[in-house]
Amino acid sequence: MGRTLVYPKVQKNTIHRKDFRATYDLSTIHSIINDTPVLHVSFNSLDPKDPFPTILPMIGIMGSFAFPSADLNEPLDCYLHGYVSSGIMKQVRENPESGLAITIAATRVDGIVLSLTPNSHSYNYRSAVLFGYGSLVDDMQEKLWAMEMITNSVVPGRWDQTRTPPDKAEMASTTILKVKIVNGSGKIRTGGPGDEKKDTEREDLLRRVFTGVVPMWETVGEPVAGGAGRVEQVPEHLRAFRDDTNKVNEKYAKTAAVEKI
């Protein structure tokens, strides 16, 4: 049996409230990051007059350029896709040695948990937070590798179905940010409602209030042709992506509604 690697518990990443839902397993945390279409990336401004941290929606994926075959249970970097003149990229350039301190957050909602009282309502969810230092990817081979990996993380196989590689202008305007992960943690809720004894002993509530879970999952719709392309038939890689994604998301949400995963 292979060993399960975990992020070390320190003050910054340790989950205290309902810590039985916490996870520090690399594989689980990295999976949540990879399964979330939009990550939220936060960092502090270098301007002492600006008291507010910045939070950006970005596309990202876990990977290792040095060890491309590394699986999710191994230490990985987080590659983020951005525009060359964006604020975060400018700030990274001002921290070339230490890198920019960055927090990455991801959340998936899998169901609405309906309880006897509003105070006990909840979500079934998967969430993860990573802490690390971001630097720009200057090596062209690594940059191209990361761009392909990020593209295929959105729609598997899409890179080879398009005009590639990007030309010089596209490579110049696109910036890849590599975040060296220092630590992380995750939190997951599955199962049905958890009502308090004072409510479950009230027969009037039990007979009047519906309790349970409304499963929720992200659905990929039928591709709609448009733009300059003349291909009307939906390619097989898109059909497979739609069918596989919907099947996996629905199965997880429905399973999470009735049992601990």
TrEMBL record:
InterPro entries: Pyridox_Oxase-rel, Split_barrel_FMN-bd. Pfam families: Pyridox_ox_2 (PF12900). This is Flavin-nucleotide-binding protein. SUPFAM superfamilies: FMN-binding split barrel (SSF50475). Signal peptide: none annotated. It comes from Alectoria fallacina. Gene3D superfamilies: Electron Transport, Fmn-binding Protein, Chain A (2.30.110.10).
